[in-house]
Every structure is written in C-alpha cells, then in structure tokens.
Amino acid sequence: MWSDPNLSPFMAVTAHWIEGCTINTTCGNACTLKLRADLVGFCPVPGNHTGTHMANVFLHVTDRLGITNKVCN
C-alpha cells in the first residue's frame, strides 16, 4: 500500500514462485529450479485502510486470477 503525490491510495500485489526448468548441458538435459516473481495486481484502494478493506482488495485480485483457493486454504 502507498499513496501517490495526490494522496490517492494503491495496492500492489506480487507473486513469487519456484519454476522447474529443463536446461541443455554438455552432459544432456538437467532439471533446475528458477525463482520467479511478477506483479499480478495493481488496484486503487479508496476509503479507509483497515485490515478488512485491504483483505477484500487482495481477495478481489486473487479471485480475478482464479487462485484464491490456492493461497487462502
């Protein structure tokens, strides 16, 4: 959460995950892990910055991504 110079509040949501990758080496294929990160949501948050309000904005982002059941169990 932060506010821009006009005091408009925003929430950024980032996702971090580990991806399994196959790479070609001189000895053949090898499996490796790669740390990944991406911005998955950026939303204006008008109103109060209560925990409940911010949780609802976060759930809005995860619902749109179809991952709420994966991160909120």
3D structure, described in words:
With 73 residues, the protein is an alpha+beta fold. The mean pLDDT is 90. The chain has a three-stranded antiparallel beta sheet with strand order 1-2-3. The chain has one domain. It has helices at 51-65, 68-71; strands spanning 2-3, 9-25, 28-44. The chain is elongated. 26% of the residues lie in helices and 49% in strands. The protein starts with a strand and ends with a helix. The protein has two helices and three strands, in the order E-E-E-H-H.
C-alpha geometry:
elongated
Physical arrangement of strands within the biggest beta sheet: 1-2-3
Order of helices and strands: EEEHH
Strand percentage, roughly? Answer: over 45%
Number of strands: 3
Low-confidence stretches: none
Provide the helix percentage. 25-40%
Radius of gyration: 18 Å
What average pLDDT do the residues reach?
Answer: 90
Q: Please give the largest β-sheet.
A: 3 strands, antiparallel
Secondary-structure-derived class? alpha+beta
Note the gap between the termini. 24 Å
Domains, number? 1
